[in-house]
Design goal:
Length: 667
């Protein structure tokens, strides 16, 4: 039993060990340069390659900086291929558990051609694989990944080993570097391909960066690029020399490696640039494109669309009339075949959904101009606008100045602008777009209304519109009846479907109560103040026509008045009469029946008829005391006429007020 258990444990351990090793790439140093090029990198009977050489680190242990790698079952993007490193390739397999930085103190030189290609002067520890080839087709390409220990922390922003794929005609002296970012001349390096580094630097060409690696990774490198493709145009039948080189820059620390995809070196033909919407050069509707794959020495052709053989299409040319991925297999005898590929897309046949857009003039100046959101217009202009199409607007079809996203029409009421597809060239004419601005020119004035003693009132909006009140439920008549204070709004819409809002502010109100009329008379400036109460806002008048906001009236002459208090919300008017009293400033006792006596009028109108009036000469001598409103002073004392002069009086009113003054006797 024990023996069986031990045997089971041993088997399980072996399976676990094998499973663990399958997570990581393996390397093999035992292959020649010719084998690595012919049987790994190219692996094609079409290959015409020769003059192979490889060089790298001269390690005392005999280990190499180049060789074959196998990534079967690891999740690494390449199943196998060639590895060129600035250190021992035996340190390249995962896990990513230590820093590989071989090559110190061993006189391992750099490479002059690499220095020139990268515009540096201090490369060391160079590994170089070179060979010559004669292409059958007009293009070559191969896939690669750049991995490095220098992908760590802020060092990513500053340090990078260098590598280059250098190509030239064999007789030429100048190389072309193929290890550049697509569509540019920027060399692929740690510092040129990375995400944003916290505390370090912004992202650089992040779309080509794959990942920073955790411990459990197929390789022992801190990070790597995505799979990139090196490619070049070549002349069929011409001998070329290619030099694949990688080296440390400045010092031996932190090794890097190039992984070349097995079997990815292709000799193909150039069928032309892809015709894509994304690059702005698709074919237009109904347009055709003649693809020409003619090659000297070719014995046969077969065209494909979307990987399906096109029946009967075995000529060197093919006329494209629909979109798809097109390829052609070109045979040279029975054992050699090259390919060419091109992707064709067609511009969408745009269908106009709506080309007239109407808005109402939104401001108080109803001049037929308003702001149009052109981004919203784009969403409604076509029924089938692809998401990656760029549309801009122009004031006329010959203009090159793009209109702003929020555009105010420059022609009042009606203007035509033009929509232009910006990122697809040659397939579309400008689309006219009509902007219409309607107005609501009628002046609408808000109203304040009083709710008199909570009696229902009717609110009536201006006539000639359709209506929507903010009531619940919504009322749509011109008038509504309300019985509560509050704010009521109605939206008025005219025949142009433009609207304005009218606000009725309804406040509780009512007719005023006059509590008292406070009179200040017997003076040079007689005044009254109306003491009132009530719910409303009131205005005041002494003639019932001309009203004022203040309850105070000044400079009143003696006599009878009526004060009117009006509720401004229309709840009514209350009125009350009063008298202003004053004394005569002179009298003329000459017997003509006019102004012959001095007395104070209208005391009885104010219930002051029992007041006492005492008259004195200038020396203070009491000349007369009057106790009846019907009695006056005739200007005599003890039957004798007093002379013309000023005389003084004291009036003791029954309300407690004492009035003093003087008047003139004229004869």
């Amino acid at each position: 039993m024990i023996t069986k258990i031990n045997t089971l444990i041993i088997v399980l351990f072996g399976l676990i060990f094998q499973s663990g090793k399958a997570q990581y790439i393996s390397v093999d140093e035992g292959y020649s340069a010719q084998y690595l090029v012919e049987n790994v990198l190219i692996d094609s009977p079409c290959a015409n390659v020769f003059n192979f050489s490889v060089s790298g680190g001269n390690f005392a242990t005999g280990e190499k900086s180049y060789g074959y790698f196998d990534a079967t079952g690891t999740g690494f993007p390449f199943e196998n291929g060639i590895i060129l490193s600035t250190g021992k390739i035996n340190n390249a397999p995962g896990p990513n558990s230590f820093v590989s930085d071989d090559g110190n103190g061993m006189s391992w030189n750099g490479d002059a051609d690499l220095n020139q290609a990268l515009n540096i002067s201090n490369s060391i520890n160079a590994t170089v694989l070179e060979f010559d080839f004669i292409p059958l087709g007009s293009t070559i390409s191969f896939d690669y990944i750049f991995s490095s220990e220098e992908y760590h922390g802020t060092a990513t922003c500053q340090y990078s080993d260098g590598f280059a794929f250098l190509l030239k005609e064999a007789s030429a002296t100048t190389y072309q570097n193929l290890a550049v970012l697509p569509g540019t001349t920027i060399p692929v390096k740690v510092t040129s391909v990375h995400p944003a580094i916290s505390g370090g630097c912004p992202a650089q060409n992040e779309q080509y960066f794959d990942a920073f690696n955790s411990t459990n990774h197929p390789t022992n490198f801190n990070g790597q690029t995505k799979v990139l493709t090196a490619q070049a145009d070549v002349i069929p039948g011409t001998t070329y020399h290619i030099k694949l080189v990688i080296a440390d820059e400045g010092n031996y620390r932190y090794d890097s490696a190039i992984f070349l995809g097995g079997g990815s070196f292709n000799f193909g033909i150039d069928l032309g640039i892809d015709r894509l919407i994304a690059t702005g050069n698709p074919l237009c509707q109904s347009e055709t494109l003649l693809l020409n794959a003619t090659q000297t020495g070719a014995t046969g052709y077969q065209w494909f669309q979307n990987n399906i053989a096109l029946v009967g299409e075995t000529n060197p040319t093919y006329l494209v009339s629909s979109e798809g991925e097109y390829s052609v297999d070109i045979n040279y005898g029975t054992s050699c075949q090259t390919t060419g590929e091109i992707t064709i897309e067609y511009a969408t046949n745009l269908i106009v959904n709506q080309d007239t857009f109407t808005l109402c003039d939104a401001d108080s100046n109803q001049d037929g101009k308003t702001v149009f959101d052109l981004n919203t217009i784009i969403l409604n202009l076509f029924t089938n606008l692809p998401a990656n199409y760029t549309v801009s607007f122009f004031e006329n079809s010959s203009s090159t100045t793009v209109l702003p996203s929020f555009f105010t029409n420059t022609n009042p009421f009606n203007q035509t602008i033009y929509a232009r597809i910006m990122n697809i060239q040659g397939c579309y004419t400008d689309y006219p777009v009509h902007l219409v601005v309607n107005t609501f020119s009628t002046s609408i004035v808000d109203e304040e209304v009083g709710l008199c003693e909570n009696n229902p009132i009717t609110l009536t909006a201006d006539s000639g519109f359709t209506y929507s009140w903010n009531t619940s439920p919504v009322e749509t008549s011109q008038s509504i009846t309300v019985n509560a204070a509050g704010t009521y709004t109605v939206t008025l819409t005219n025949a142009n479907n433009c609207s304005k809002t009218k606000t009725f502010t309804v406040t509780a109100s009512g007719i005023a109560t006059i509590n008292e009329i406070i009179i200040n008379d017997f003076s040079d400036n007689n005044t009254i103040t109306v003491d009132y109460s009530g719910l409303g806002v009131y205005e005041f008048s002494l003639n019932g026509t001309n009203f004022q906001n203040s309850p105070i009236f000044s400079n009143l002459n003696e006599g009878e008045y009526t004060v009117f208090v009006n509720d401004t919300k229309g709840c009514g008017v209350v009125a009350e009469s009063f008298y202003i009293l004053n004394y005569p400033k002179y009298f003329t006792p000459n017997g003509d029946g006019i102004n012959d006596t001095w007395y104070v009028k209208n005391l009885q109108k104010r219930n002051l008829e029992n007041s006492t009036i005492s008259i004195f000469d200038r020396y203070g001598k009491l000349l007369k005391q009057i106790n009846s409103i019907y009695e006056g002073w005739d200007g005599t004392f003890n039957g004798n006429k007093l002379p013309s002069s000023d005389y003084w009086f004291v009036i003791e009113l029954t309300n407690g007020k004492i009035v003093k003054g003087h008047f003139t006797l004229k004869r």
